[in-house]
Amino acid sequence: MVEVSEYEYEKVEEISNYLLERTKHRPKLGIICGSGLGGLADRLDEKDVFAYETIPHFPVSTVVGHSGCLVFGSIKGVSAVCMKGRFHPYEGYAAWKCAMPVRVMKLLGVNTLIVTNAAGGINATFGVGDIMVIRDHINFPGLSGTNPLVGPNDERWGSRFPPLNKAYDPQLIKLVESCAAELGLSDIMREGVYCMVGGPSYETVAEIRALHILGADAVGMSTVNEVIFAHHCHMRVIGLSLITNKCVMTWDSKDEANHEEVLQTGKSRAKDLENLVSLIVERCKQQLFDEKSVNY
Ligand code: HPA
């Protein structure tokens, strides 16, 4: 028997009401910070910070490099809410639990979500420190039934069978690329397909070769559950992967993926990624205040 969401609409509403009663911010923009990328949250002005353990019904994050709080504030004059620390299936959380905070964001008023993550580079042309704007994803656990939408569907969020062919907003992908050019980051800017795997062990050589054949450019252990919830409830989504390591493609390679390298690359590129996100927000300000959400 598959475990289905314990977060009915009213419970998520309770969480968002708790927060709205305690902050003056009314965010239109949501940001989810990946491993080592929590600095994005620190950039917000006029912050209100809620540690996850103080928010009713909220899960708590258990990973080093994810400190675990929801930060409200403003960036370039836009009201935003930022998850500093996210939830991963490898921590033992169901897909719907990992994605639940996105629905809290929806009820807070968020209509655009920027999701960041650390990822291993599979595409041979990608280097450590490159930033990949996500064009599309492969949900490896999802293809075999581990999708956050499994279970009864509440139409107040979205439809039973949402399409995902435009989950990553094509217009916003163009905007990301033009912002990267404006910042002189075109040399490290890539576009590609993110593949989610369950982790926490890194992939074998055979697995990476298989993902390569399937069309994945980068691999990681997060993001797609959140993106599915976001698109389901009609948010616009931008996905950004920081390539923190090159995936090992041959058995005689001396390289090995490790979490320290992932965090270290996050630190050294964090500023570029933060600058990129700030400029994206500045450039799509108008859209963020536009109440229309995406149709599917
Ligand atoms: N594999 C999976 N997840 C990751 C990797 C990787 O190589 N790097 C950062 N997150």
TrEMBL record:
Which reactions is this enzyme annotated as catalysing? 2'-deoxyguanosine + phosphate = 2-deoxy-alpha-D-ribose 1-phosphate + guanine; guanosine + phosphate = alpha-D-ribose 1-phosphate + guanine; inosine + phosphate = alpha-D-ribose 1-phosphate + hypoxanthine; 2'-deoxyinosine + phosphate = 2-deoxy-alpha-D-ribose 1-phosphate + hypoxanthine
Q: Where is the Nucleoside phosphorylase domain?
A: 28-281
Give the family per the record.
Belongs to the PNP/MTAP phosphorylase family.
Q: What is this protein called?
A: Purine nucleoside phosphorylase
Keywords, comma-separated and alphabetical: Glycosyltransferase, Transferase
Gene Ontology terms: biological process: nucleoside metabolic process
Annotated residues for binding of a purine D-ribonucleoside: E203, N245
UniProt binding sites for phosphate: S35, H66, R86, F87, H88, A118, S222
Indicate whether Glycosyltransferase appears among the record's keywords.
Answer: yes
Q: Give the InterPro entries listed for this entry.
A: Nucleoside_phosphorylase_d, Nucleoside_phosphorylase_sf, Pur_Nuc_Pase_Ino/Guo-sp, Purine_phosphorylase
CDD domains given for it? PNP-EcPNPII_like (cd09009)
Q: In which pathway does it act?
A: Purine metabolism; purine nucleoside salvage
One Pfam entry name: PNP_UDP_1
Transmembrane spans: none
Lineage of producing organism: Eukaryota, Metazoa, Ecdysozoa, Arthropoda, Chelicerata
Q: Any idea what job this protein has?
A: The purine nucleoside phosphorylases catalyze the phosphorolytic breakdown of the N-glycosidic bond in the beta-(deoxy)ribonucleoside molecules, with the formation of the corresponding free purine bases and pentose-1-phosphate.
Give the top-level enzyme category: transferase
According to the UniProt entry, its GO molecular function terms are: guanosine phosphorylase activity; purine-nucleoside phosphorylase activity
Q: Which GO terms describe its cellular component?
A: cytoplasm
The EC number of this protein is 2.4.2.1
